[in-house]
Amino acid sequence: MTTVVCRCEDITEDDILEAIRDGYREIEVIKRHLRLGMGPCQGKTCIPIIERIVARETGCKTQELDIPTARPPSRQVSFSLLAGDDRD
Amino acid sequence: MTVTESARAVIIGGGVNGTGIAYHLAKRGYTDVVVLEKGYLGCGASGRNGGGIRQQFSTKENIILAMESTRMFEKLPDELDTEIEFEQGGYLVLAFTDEEVEQFKKNVKLQNDLGLKSSFISAEEAREIVPELNISKVLAGTFNSTDGTIYPFPVIYGYARAARGMGVDIREHTTVTDIVTQGRTIRAVKTDRGTIETDTVVNAAGGWSAGIARMAGVELPNRPYRHEIMVTEPFKRFLEPMVISFQHGIYFSQSRHGNVVGGIGNPHEEQGINQRSSLWFMRTMAKTLTELVPRFSAVNMIRQWAGLYDTTPDAQPILGEVPEVERFFQVNGFSGHGFMVSPVVDKVTAELILGETPSMNIDGLSVTRFKGMDLEMEYSVVG
Ligand SMILES: Cc1cc2nc3c(=O)[nH]c(=O)nc-3n(C[C@H](O)[C@H](O)[C@H](O)COP(=O)(O)OP(=O)(O)OC[C@H]3O[C@@H](n4cnc5c(N)ncnc54)[C@H](O)[C@@H]3O)c2cc1C
């Protein structure tokens, strides 16, 4: 049994360990390789967990890791709402 | 710490072009190569783009580059043993003005003459391809079924893995700070981590390439402009092709995972290195997208980001050597269509570095074309 790390994309701790073994050692890069933290929750739960796994596996402190830039919008928002200024 | 080492060639930039050129050189046995990337591989435009692969251009050079590149992308998964998610759902290009209609007819004629099976279609036919499309203002369109989209990231990492496997030295988090020349000869590349002696440098630094050229005393006409892009939540796939309108500066497609990825150019964007996200983009994207496809109204945007277009005066790339400095190869100025032409560009650049006659003539794309010449504009560009 293995822990699910990213629920949006169904990615497990084993997937992350394998990515690190394959040479994807930065969070930004692991994220793009596994498409993780890119689902509707935008990595709010999984990125902190991945930070800890990468820190443990690569021997870096979590503070030394490059953390992915948080991209807007901070929560998902519909196009009708965004377009809403001068239309319904 | 200063370490002095040497290499046969130094490639500046770890995007699709830097890694791709390294791969093509290594395949030919030229492995004493160092690739320098100031961030991680793909942190520039190559890891931020829409993955659109289009062959419907208005100039001969771009059409030929894109056609041959598409054929190479088709073979790339086998060659690199990696999945690149190349979906050939076609590109639907929409015309909204009479000038566009005339230009598109010319484009299709030229494309057909060069062997591309694109077609000029009516607004009704466009709606047959995308039934949810609002065609009230669409005058006509063009369609080519072998265009499509890819996921850029595995392409870059596929090249890097293969090149490293053959002995190429690819260094991330290493910033080039200077290029040392003596007369017309390159002597070395300086970085924040030491100096590498070499007589051959490739400038594949995307939006930063004019700055890199200046380090060698070469002035390029390319300038960086921010271009923004976004992705929606995934939902059931209903959009087969990439849809594009030069009039609105917009393009959008739906990936095999169901997310819609799209961007829109800001005509008032100021020149400069700026990769921040704007509210203008979010609103304009939402307005334009829901106008073209009303069904998108209920869909949620989940993320927006930005990257740099490296834009030349004629929206065509700058390739090959420069008059001022020997063995200083340019691979830049791709505006918003550098990924789709990279396979050929990288192969041909490798051939030039090896001193061979290139398999495709790219003389027309040398930087010298900007010296007092009439420019042949590429009209089919967004943003
Ligand atoms: C939002 C957006 C959407 C796009 N959509 C498409 C599309 O759908 N289809 C398409 O074909 N193209 C598209 N493009 C264009 C395409 O992404 C680029 O043309 C292409 O990726 C350029 O690749 P490159 O390797 O030449 O440059 P880049 O990927 O930009 O790589 C240059 C690298 O050089 C590095 N660098 C810079 N300065 C230094 C230094 N001093 N030392 C060391 N390294 C340095 C940078 O960090 C960067 O990683 C888009 C671009 C953007 C921004």
Topology record:
The complex is a heterodimer of chains A (88) and B (383).
Chain A: E1 4-6, E2 11-12, H1 13-21, H2 27-34, H3 46-58, E3 77-78, H4 79-83
Antiparallel strand pairs in A: 1-2
Helix pairs in contact in A: 1-3
Chain B: E1 4-6, E2 9-12, H1 16-27, E3 33-36, E4 52-53, H2 60-80, E5 91-95, H3 98-113, E6 119-122, H4 123-129, E7 140-144, E8 148-149, H5 152-165, E9 169-171, E10 176-182, E11 185-191, E12 194-197, E13 201-203, H6 209-215, E14 223-234, E15 242-245, E16 250-254, E17 259-264, H7 279-292, E18 300-311, E19 318-320, E20 328-332, H8 342-353
The structure holds flavin-adenine dinucleotide.
What's this model, at a glance?
The complex is a heterodimer of chains A (88) and B (383). By secondary structure, chain A is mainly alpha-helical.
Structural notes for this entry:
- The complex is a heterodimer of chains A (88) and B (383).
- With 88 residues, chain A is mainly alpha-helical.
- Chain A has one domain (4-82): Arc Repressor Mutant, subunit A, CATH 1.10.10.1100.
- Chain A has helices spanning 13-21, 27-34, 46-58, 79-83, and strands at 4-6, 11-12, 77-78.
- Chain A has a two-stranded antiparallel sheet with strand order 1-2.
- Chain A starts with a strand and ends in a 5-residue tail after the last helix.
- Chain B is an alpha/beta fold and 383 residues long.
- Chain B has 2 domains: 4-47 and 153-222 and 314-370, FAD/NAD(P)-binding domain, CATH 3.50.50.60; 86-146 and 223-311, 2-Layer Sandwich (D-Amino Acid Oxidase, Chain A, domain 2), CATH 3.30.9.10.
- In chain B, helix 1 (16-27) links the parallel strand 2 (9-12) and strand 3.
- Flavin-adenine dinucleotide is lined by residues 12-18, 36-39, 43-46, 48-52, 175-176, 204-208, 227, 229, 263, 307-309, 332, 334, 336-340 of chain B.
